[in-house]
Amino acid sequence: MEVTPYTPTDYSLARTDNNVHRLPPIRSGDLVSRSDEAPAYTIHNTRYALPAPNIIRGTSDLQSGEIDSWPANASGSSGAFRTLALTNQGRLVPIGTNLRGKLDTTPKPKFLAIIEDYLYSELKALGVEESTANESRLQVFREVFSTIIDDFKTYKPLLSAIKNEYEIMLTHLSDKVKELEPLRQQLVLLSEQCDKKLMQYRNEEREEISLLKEEKRRLQQNIRQLTNQNQNLETNIQRLQEEVSNQYQLYRKELDARKLLINDANDLRNQQEKRADEKEGLDEQGIKKEDPIMMRIALKQARKDLNLALAKITHMEANYNDVVPRRDFVALEAKSNECLERIKELQTINDNQSQAIEQLRTQNENLKEDIQRLQREKDELNIKNENIHDEMTPRPSWHLAGEVIDGGAERWQNVSTNKTSQEKLVILLNEFTGGGNDDDGSGNQSQNSTVPDQLSPRGEGEQIPFHLRSSRPVKNRRLTRRDVVVLIQEIWTERRISDKQDGRTKSLSEFIYEFFRNRYGNHNTAVEMGYNLDHACKRFKYNDNCQLFYHILSGEADEDIYHYTKNLIEHLAERILKESETYPNGSVPSEKFHHMLTKYLPNKSSNDISELVAAAEKEQPNEEQISVAKLFSVDDEDNYGEFIRVLKRQLNDDKQSYIHDVVEKTENSNSVNAKDLEQTLRSLNPHIQPNELAHIIQWTFEAKDGSQKPSMSVNDILQRLQNGVFYRQHALSS
């Protein structure tokens, strides 16, 4: 908001004869001269113009220079208490107590009415009618006050000075607020920093407290163990004391029983003597001669003896009730001494363990300091290492070559071990061009690394494969690995088309000869390409496609291995692609893809399905959903992605497990015939199809000339099963 500064002008009051201060008379010329100087103010880039002074000034002021004393000049109301009220038209009018609540209709000066009208209209236009702290409202009152100061020239110096002091104080307070605003922000920032440091200190203390608590729990556990041992010893001592007490009771009882027996024996002896004496006192008829006096004396003596015996028994019970036999006391004392010695030993062990704990705690602190020091040294060495790497020439990442050559990282590790950078580069160039690759896949070059210009013929006998029947040397075309793989893929494609149209009526060797004969148009070129294909498959035997093709071509493996795997992949792709058509762009979520695999591969375990889903996600790491079409895409070299490679590996694992079960069933047999193998397979897989079982039996016992062998050794059986279509979990769900 821009405010036009006001410059006060010195004015003097006109003094009359009656010493009454009056405003100087307002001349019409002054009104005309200042009519073009209308005041204005700006709020938020909006200019607001005040009315001209000649419009605001009342008519009464044109006639007299005195300040009107309204509302005190109203007749009959100068001494009464008056208040102001706001009318419906937005005017302030006085209300006197003598009017009994009625509005005072005494007219106010025109200048005051104009000022009030302008003030209320401006406040209403700016929307600041309520009496609240607002910059726009203050500016309106400031301009109105400036207009009043300009009009009352007599009081203009004083009012201007008052206004100027207020403006200075407001400016000073505003500057103070602006100065304190950065301090408030800095205070908030310092408060946040203090909170962060406090949380950091609390986290550090929390870790240390957790370690101390763990140490405390361990020590308390040791204390509890020692306490339990002490309690066990005390329990043993108490048990031994009870046993001694029981032994003493048994001893006392035995002693008493012995005494009773002695007394009984004495009584019996006395009775026997008495009976002998009585027999002597019998009469002729055998009747005892009784002497009353003797009987009385005997009774008295018996009672006396009884009293003495009872007194003696009472005396023995009173004096020897808690007495322990000496031998038992000595034995108990020896045991007690042993227990005390054991307690002392345990106490010594406890003290030693406490000292060891303290030593371990000290060593732990020292190790922590060493670890921190080593960590700092490690960071410094890493920084130096990075600086050295930045300054030195960067070395090639040779391990990445294992991802692009045939045989993978394992073969690259074998062929590149102990090789210089130049030798590694030569190996890579040979891989890409197909030259100089006569190795066994383990990095060992053959003795004759020179590729011959001509290939030796094998002859034209019946035992020679059809595509290799030639008696003349054949030119070596030096086919590259890519040429061989692409050529094999074309042969397989034509072979599958021919099988669908005419059935499999020819061997693979005959089909290859016809394939080259139809392509090149003459016998010599067809045989030449057959020799070059055979030679290249041997050279690139580390390639899976070349190796499988060569084994099938040489009769070592069943041709249905390729067709079975290819059909399984195509049928699975057909069903999953058909179901994924309902999703945008054929991309399905991982959960839905998991459900599809479970649905169409019911014989797979949950771990196998999860592994397949993980392989699909790994093959498409940057995709939120799985693109099904990309998973089953194949290049011109018949290479698939990670998903299909995992699927093939699971098929091979299933075959190895199946063969292992066959080994366990036939390991005790020297030879196996067709019937034994059939029974073994039926016991291992009761749901095997008859045509599948017949194919396995025929392939296993088939000789090179096409005849069937009556029996074979177990090792030969396993080798044939290894190279045949021999899977247990392979059927797709219908």
UniProtKB/TrEMBL annotation:
Residues 432-464 are annotated as: Disordered. The keyword Lipid metabolism does not apply. One of its GO terms (cellular component) is cytoplasm. Residues 202-319, 343-391 form a coiled coil. Residues 116-226 form the Translin-associated factor X-interacting protein 1 N-terminal domain. Keywords: Coiled coil. InterPro entries: TSNAXIP1_N (IPR032755). It holds the Pfam family TSNAXIP1_N. It comes from the Eukaryota. This is Translin-associated factor X-interacting protein 1 N-terminal domain-containing protein. It comes from Rotaria sordida.
